Each structure stands twice: as C-alpha cells, then as structure tokens.
Amino acid sequence: MNALLPDPRPIDTLVVPPELDGRRGTNRARNGIAQIAATNDLDAIRAWLARFVDTKTTFDSYRKEAERLLLWSVLRLGKPLSSLTHEDLLLYQHFLVDPQPAAQWTASGGRKHPRSDPRWRPFYGPLSPGSQRQAMVILNVMFAWLVQAGYLAGNPLSLSRQRAHRTKPRITRYLSPELWLEVKTFIQAMPTGTEREREHHARVRWLFTLLYLGGLRITEVGENTMGRFFCRCDANGQDRWWLEVFGKGGKERLLPATAEMMTELAVYRRERGLPALPSQAEDTPLVLPIGQSLKPLTRAALHRIVKEVFSGAANALRARGETHTARADQLEQASAHWLRHSAGSHMADRQVDLRLVRDNLGHASLTTTSQYLHVDDDRRHRETDEKHRIDW
C-alpha cells in the first residue's frame, strides 16, 4: 500500500503523487497529436467521464469503475493507470472477486456512505460474477476511448494498437450454403443396406443436425445428454422444446430445440429403439456408439465421424471434374467447428437478430437456469425456428 495515499478517496478530490500521476506512463502515446488536453491519468479519466454528465446513471456507473481501477493501480500496485499491462488487468479481475484488505476497500457493513464522508470506500463488498464482467466491459470502453483520443498507445484489455488499420473481420472457416448443400447431399446418399449402415447413417444425420441447428461445440455434443431436453409453454400456451447445454468453462445456456430438431431427434431415437421423446433427466448421450453401448462417444470419435463425412463429400466433388477441385479442397479442411461458424453465418444471412445468434451460440452464457421462459426467450425460439433450418 502506498504510504502517500493510505486510504482510497473519491476522484473528485483525489490528488495523485507526481510519480504516479501518469505523465510518464509506459503506455502513453508518444507519437501523433493528442485529441484531449489531459497530461495525467486523472485528467484523462475526467475527460472521458465528461461525455456522460447528462446521463446520471451512466456517469455514476462509469465513474465508479474508473475510480476503482485508478485507486487500485496507485494504491496496490504503485503504478500509474497509464502503465498498466494486460497482466495487471488480470490481477485486477481477481481483486474484484474479494477486495482486500476489506477495511481499506469496503464500506463497513456494506453501507453506501456519501462521497464526502471519511468512511466512504469504493466497494461495498465482493463483486458478483455479473458485476465483475460489467466492470471489465466499462473499463474496456474507457481504455479504447483513451487510445482513440491519443492519450494511450494501446488498450491493455484488448491489446489493440493505436490507429491500427482495422480490416473488416471475416470468418473464413465456414461452409457457404452451396458447400453445405453438398455435405447434406452426401449424407443423404450414404449407404443404408445393412443394419450397421442404417444406424451409422442415422447417427451422422443426427450429429450434423446438432452441430448445425444447435451450433454446438463438439465437446458439448459429447458431454451433454438427451435428458437435458425439456418442454415449456410460452406466453401463448404453445409448447416449445429447449436443450439446456453445459458448455465451455462449465457455463450453461438454453438452446432453442426447434420443431425440425425435435423431429430429427425422434427419428434417431426410434432408429435406436428408444421412445420418440426423452424423459426428464434421461442419461442417454446425445450421440451413441454403433451397437448396444450407451457410453458417450469421445471428442476424438466425434471428430473422426465429422472428418470422414467432409472427406467423403470432398471426394464426391472431385469425381465431378477439375472445376470442383478448389471447393473439394476447402471441404477437406473443414472440421466440426466449421459447422458452428456456418450456423452463425447462415442465421445472420437470414436476418436472425444478432443478439439471438449470440445467445444461441453461447457467446453470452446463462449464469443460472430460469424456472420459466421469458418473452425474450420465446422470441429467440420463434425466430430460430422460423429462420434457421437444416432442410434435409
């Protein structure tokens, strides 16, 4: 703890020692023309906050997060805010989980004292996961603006550089609708002469349905069960099926199980001698091995199935002549994750709201499972059902 500033103070009256005020911060922009007059970190933060004075709620929220970081940087690290690195910000995220020592950082009893009160502290207790994420989002906005204003050389949260030429992001690892049709056509033509071939054909069709309609990661296919499908009535009394997915990092999300997906699930289950619809908490894996085993397939086994299909579709393309070689080579490179990218791209192409695409793919994950479906969830289900189809 820096001796010159033994206790955190509001930035309204804060005076930062010259050696920590950021005039010589290691992340200060050295070239180009600054767009703000600030020469130290505190004035730069105030310039950023001045943009929000007309919206009290936003101003208070943004000031709170900027204030906390500045105080932490100066008091805990003994560094100017304009010298913070990406690694420092990772430490700060851990600090937000439980600011210590509590007597210096947390208001006694979690009470909110006036900013002029000596008992004022920047925290009222540990931050929830949602509050931690919100804090970092706001700080990212601040850092990005300070870079744009010519005050900082780079954003330690995003690692982007000042005035770098930004090309429009392009997702290249996905299947165009035309290539996706080639894959579906190949799957439909797979042999079904023997019992094993029929079972394999049904499994492949169901696996590709999950990866495309659900946008699932390959690990999510292997780690979730059919018992995670459930049905609820929406606000209009219509039954809607959902798939609750444990995803990356152990996070949860609700995935719309469209009418098409549920039809394919019923077909696959009947092929395996199971009832058309799963029961609650049923532990049957989403995709099963050939034969009587009910053990989940490994990630490697699922990848192998997908790669074999892409390879077979590529060979079928090459057999049609040299004009198809480039497209066949692209298919040869495809993996299960390409189907996830394809799902997102095709949903966007069909004007599914990008916020709904984000939620479907789990880019914004659920922290708790709702006991009922909200109107927004109903809309997400309806739009996904109407606009995102596999059309076997």
Question: In a few lines, what is going on in this structure?
Answer:
The chain has helices spanning 41-49, 56-77, 86-97, 102-105, 129-148, 177-188, 195-213, 218-223, 259-271, 299-318, 325-333, 336-349, 354-361, 375-387; strands spanning 229-233, 239-246, 252-257. The protein has 392 residues and is mainly alpha-helical.
Fold and architecture overview:
The chain is mainly alpha-helical and 392 residues long. It folds into two domains: 18-148, no CATH class; 177-387, hpI Integrase, Chain A. Helix content is 46%, strand content 5%. The protein has 14 helices and three strands. It has a three-stranded antiparallel β-sheet with strand order 1-2-3. The longest helix has 22 residues, at 56-77. The chain starts with 40 loop residues before the first helix and ends in a 5-residue tail after the last helix. The model is unreliable at 1-5, 160-171 and 364-375 (pLDDT under 50).
Keywords for this structure?
392 residues; mainly alpha; hpI Integrase, Chain A; 2 domains; 3-stranded antiparallel β-sheet; 14 helices; elongated; disordered N terminus
